[in-house]
Write a structure and sequence with these properties.
Aminopeptidase; 2 domains; 8-stranded mixed sheet; about 15% strand
């Protein structure tokens, strides 16, 4: 009899345990996983003339950084300076004035590079678009992160004649890669701290990180647990990743991207301690209390050549990257309050 009563008691207690778990799971999905609008699901259309031109620019800039310059960091300092010069000259050719933020690392001078398009309605509010231009020592770093730099330059060119409501800053960061990652010498942390000390009103920061590799093969996409049960196993999408505090910004960003882009996307606003969530320059802005998110192909969770000498331009999918960057340009315009491009391919 005692056994029977215990069994019945367990059944009665089960709903009291399950319901809070289900409520917690639902709340987590609603606040962290659910993203507005719908991801693009094909079919692909041929690249337009504007997109073909964009692809040519992206490939040219990536090949300049990864092939003509190559390994670029404090341990290959001449190449590092050459990369900074190339980025500065590209921004100047687009019509920007470029400011260099210099700091010392390993006895050598390195630079963050900043250009901006001043806002017309609310110029003190700032949207930062950033990408690191250094490489892991000994690698050409085509995907990580010449792709992000090329997207940064393409967006700067597009907005050069725009009239955004907010000020848009385009920043190329030094020293994102090890051994400086998440240290005092990380370029984006140097930049974010100085911005905070000046009292800059940064409405949000977007980190462009490793965005050139895509695959339709089943099992080509991996995740830190438990996200393999939530997201697709094909690495054919662009990921929008933020911490919980930046959830509003990442949802605004992915909504704008999905409304304009013909490219698959997934998003998350989850605790920053989860592997991969803070692995780029957006992390530095979190440290100073600014909202920020990363846009990425998920790097090591998909890309087999991550941080190796085989990270070369031939591994990249330029047509898909072009579609992704075209959407990111439109997203940036909307977040900054600039008019959509005339004659755009969307």
């Amino acid at each position: 009899m005692r056994h029977s009563r215990k069994k019945r008691s367990s059944r009665l207690l089960l709903p009291g345990f399950v319901i809070p778990v289900l409520l917690a799971a639902g709340a987590a999905w609603w606040t962290m996983i659910r993203m507005p609008a719908s991801s693009f699901d094909g079919p692909w259309s041929p690249l337009s003339e504007n997109e073909a031109r964009l692809m040519s620019e992206l490939e040219r800039d990536i090949r300049t950084l990864a092939e003509d310059i190559g390994d670029r960091n404090v341990f290959a300092h001449e190449n590092y300076l050459a990369a900074a010069d190339f980025i500065e000259e590209s921004l100047r050719e687009a019509g920007y004035e470029v400011a260099r933020q210099a700091f010392e690392t390993e006895g050598r001078r390195v630079y963050n590079l900043e250009a901006q398009r001043r806002g017309s309605a609310d110029p003190e509010r700032i949207l930062v678009l950033g990408a690191h231009y250094d490489s892991v020592a000994g690698t050409p770093a085509a995907n990580d992160n010449a792709t992000g730099v090329a997207a940064l330059l393409a967006t700067a060119r597009d907005l050069a004649e725009a009239e955004p409501e907010l000020t848009v800053r385009f920043v190329a960061f030094a020293n994102e890669e090890p051994p400086f990652f998440q240290t005092e010498k990380m370029g984006s942390l140097v930049y974010a701290r100085e911005a905070r000390q000046r009292g800059d009103d940064i409405a949000g920061m977007i980190s462009l990180e490793t965005i050139g590799y895509y695959s339709d093969e089943p099992g080509s996409q991996r995740y830190p647990p438990p996200f393999q049960w939530i997201y697709p196993d094909r690495g054919n999408f662009l990921a929008f990743v933020a911490n919980v505090r930046s959830g509003g910004l990442v949802r605004e960003g992915i909504r704008a991207f999905r409304e304009h882009a013909k490219f698959p996307s997934e998003g998350a606003s989850v605790p920053g301690f989860i592997d991969g969530v803070g692995w780029s320059d957006h992390w530095a802005f979190w440290q100073e209390g600014y909202p920020a998110f990363m846009v990425t192909d998920t790097a090591l969770f998909r890309y087999p050549y991550y941080h190796t000498p085989r990270d070369t331009p031939d591994k990249l999918d330029f047509p898909r990257m072009t579609r992704a960057v075209d959407g990111l340009i439109a997203m940036t315009r909307e977040l900054a309050g600039a008019e959509a491009r005339s004659g755009a391919s969307r």
